[in-house]
Amino acid sequence: MKIAMLSDLHDGAAEAYLPERLTKASLHDSLQDCRGCPLWEHATQAVPGEGRKSSRVMLVGEQPGDREDIDGRPFVGPAGRLLDEALEQAGIDRESAFVTNAVKHFKWEPRGKRRLHQKPNRSEVEACGPWLAGEIEYVRPDFLVLLGSTAAQAVLGSDVRVTRIRGEVLTDTPLAAHVMATVHPSSILRTRDGDRHDAMEAFVDDLRQVARLVSASRSR
């Protein structure tokens, strides 16, 4: 498995819009001007990552959803509420983590008055790579948690299947000391009611593994 280098992520159409100096403000402001792929045309706004520069844990999802597109913040819709619950159960304070997405604009299709999520394609993910690279350079996390296939494939390659590597901790990688892939919380919301509890428990177990590694690294 070949983990992307920061230079690999930078090799995307959005590179031209990345600020020279990476700060929270410059990343936020420059992102709103990004025209690296066509997704900006139908989105309300670009949604930057959120969290502290000193965050040891970075969580990367797929893209903003309807609520995130309106509010301009990542993981504030139904999947975000489930993520918050899972993080709390795992012992990870969301306020101490950096939360973002591999793609910064909401891709959707109209269905009556609703806007339904569409999965971003490979070219859109690659175009947006420089923004993820910029956030990783800005935060410099020790633990990179990839939520779902889009985030995992953005970092680990298009052939990666989360079902095969879920929960496996990759160490000493070019992007962070530890990288782990797990499911996206939206997949749990789509699970049948009878199976949802088990799906949630498995997700929390993955995050607990991250919490244990964070705790162990602090005690060294």
Question: Low-confidence runs (pLDDT<50, min 5 residues)?
Answer: none
At the fourth level of CATH, the homologous superfamily is Uracil-DNA glycosylase-like domain
Task: Calculate the terminal CA-CA distance, rounded to whole Å.
Answer: 29 Å
Shape: globular
Number of domains: 1
What radius of gyration results from the CA coordinates?
16 Å
Q: For the largest sheet, list the strands in their spatial order.
A: 2-1-5-7-6
The main sheet comes to: 5 strands, mixed
CATH topology description:
Uracil-DNA Glycosylase, subunit E
If helices are DSSP runs of H or I spanning 4 or more residues, what is the number of helices?
Answer: 9
The structural class is alpha/beta
Structure commentary:
With 220 residues, this protein is α/β, with parallel strands linked by helices. Strand 3 (108-111) and strand 4 (114-117) form a beta hairpin. It has helices at 6-10, 24-31, 66-71, 78-90, 122-139, 149-156, 162-165, 185-189, 193-218, and strands at residues 57-61, 98-101, 108-111, 114-117, 143-147, 169-171, 178-182. The strands form 2 sheets. A 5-stranded mixed sheet has the order 2-1-5-7-6, with helices on both faces. Strands 3-4 form a two-stranded antiparallel ribbon. It has a single domain (6-218), classed as Uracil-DNA glycosylase-like domain (Uracil-DNA Glycosylase, subunit E). It is built from 9 helices and 7 strands, in the order ααβααβββαβααββαα.
Briefly summarize what is shown.
The chain has 220 residues and is α/β, with parallel strands linked by helices. It contains nine helices and seven strands.
